[in-house]
């Protein structure tokens, strides 16, 4: 997790395009200035960052389903539940499932756990748009490589 | 069983917090009910789920932008209900349906 660059996902553990599911890992850093303010003496991951982590997990799933032809942009956050505290140094495992692929939008259901304990969940809707800038596409390709996106999964139909 | 229009109207009322009795078959989703594109995503999801279809929103938008269709054809609710009935009929007529 590189909080300074808003890169919350470290690794793709599993991508199943048949079942339209993804599992990713996100290692919460042991220390960061965010935790100095949120909160002094009781550092925890802000709920907005857990929501963003769920959104980025869903985003990778959607990119895989769409074969990187369009970029998902977060549009609607529903039923976002912060069910337990997530502390510095903990490993988040996030599972997202594509609930619906509509015309120009996609909906996912996502759950984040530490160990077996459910920490957060949400239903997220994304608008799907052509990549607005070639640099973004290049960045996403590089990032996909970095986090172990199984590009071979997309050639299997 | 309620009509397609009634089902759509109920979805819109619930999704956009619009009083159900103000939603009429002749209402234009955008011009009369003030539904914006984001709310329409939510409505489209609910309609897709309720009817087991995929409303071709992008195709419709393109047709409007290209001047090949008017917004009334898709966004006046009775017309939208008719389009949905057509999509459901096409789905049911498809092989394997």
Q: What proportion of the residues of chain A form beta strands (DSSP E)?
A: 35-45%
Shape of chain B: globular
Spatial extent as radius of gyration of chain A: 15 Å
Put simply, the count of helices of chain B is 5
The ordered H/E elements of chain A are EEHHEEEEH
Helix content of chain B: 55-70%
β-strand number of chain B:
0
Largest sheet of chain A: 6 strands, antiparallel
Mean pLDDT of chain B: 93
- Record field, number of beta strands of chain A: 6
Mean pLDDT of chain A: 94
InterPro entries (chain B): ACP-like_sf, PP-bd_ACP, Ppantetheine_attach_site
Protein name (chain B): Acyl carrier protein
Keywords (chain B): Phosphopantetheine, Phosphoprotein
Domain Carrier (chain B): 2-88
What does this structure look like?
Chain B: Residues 2-88 form the Carrier domain. Chain B: It holds the Pfam family PP-binding. The complex is a heterodimer of chains A (157) and B (97). By secondary structure, chain A is an alpha+beta fold. Chain A is built from three helices and six strands; from the N terminus they run ββααββββα. The longest helix of chain A is centred in the middle third of the chain and has 19 residues, at 47-65. Chain A is globular and about 45 Å long. In chain B, α1 crosses α5. Chain B is globular, with a radius of gyration of 13 Å. The chains are: A alpha+beta (157), B mainly alpha (97). At the A-B interface, loops of A face α2 and α3 of B.
How would you summarize the topology of this molecule?
The complex is a heterodimer of chains A (157) and B (97).
Chain A: E1 11-16, E2 21-27, H1 33-37, H2 47-65, E3 71-82, E4 91-101, E5 105-114, E6 117-129, H3 134-146
Antiparallel strand pairs in A: 1-2, 2-4, 3-6, 4-5, 5-6
Chain B: H1 4-16, H2 37-51, H3 57-65, H4 71-75, H5 77-93
């Amino acid at each position: 997790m590189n909080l300074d660059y808003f890169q919350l996902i470290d690794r793709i553990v599993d991508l199943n395009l048949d079942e339209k599911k993804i599992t990713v890992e996100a290692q919460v850093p042991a220390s960061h200035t965010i935790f100095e303010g949120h909160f002094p003496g009781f550092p925890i991951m802000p709920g907005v960052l857990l929501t963003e982590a769920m959104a980025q997990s869903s985003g990778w799933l959607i990119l895989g389903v769409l074969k990187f032809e369009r970029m998902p942009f977060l549009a609607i956050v529903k039923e976002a539940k912060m069910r337990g505290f997530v502390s510095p140094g903990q490993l988040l495992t996030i599972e997202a499932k594509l609930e619906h692929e509509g015309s120009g939008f996609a909906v996912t259901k996502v759950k984040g756990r530490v160990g077996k304990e459910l920490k957060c969940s949400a239903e997220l809707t994304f608008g799907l748009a052509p990549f607005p800038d070639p640099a973004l596409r290049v960045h996403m390709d590089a990032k996909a490589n970095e986090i172990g996106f199984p590009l071979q999964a997309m050639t299997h139909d | 069983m309620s009509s397609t229009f009634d089902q759509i109207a109920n979805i819109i009322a619930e999704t956009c917090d619009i009083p159900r009795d103000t939603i009429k078959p002749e209402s234009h989703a955008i011009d009369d009910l003030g539904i914006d594109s984001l709310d329409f995503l939510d409505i489209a999801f609910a309609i897709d789920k309720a009817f087991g279809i995929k409303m071709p929103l992008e195709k419709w938008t393109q047709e409007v932008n290209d001047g090949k269709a008017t917004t009334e054809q898709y966004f006046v609710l009775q017309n939208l209900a008719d389009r949905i009935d057509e999509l459901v009929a096409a789905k049911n007529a498809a092989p394997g349906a």
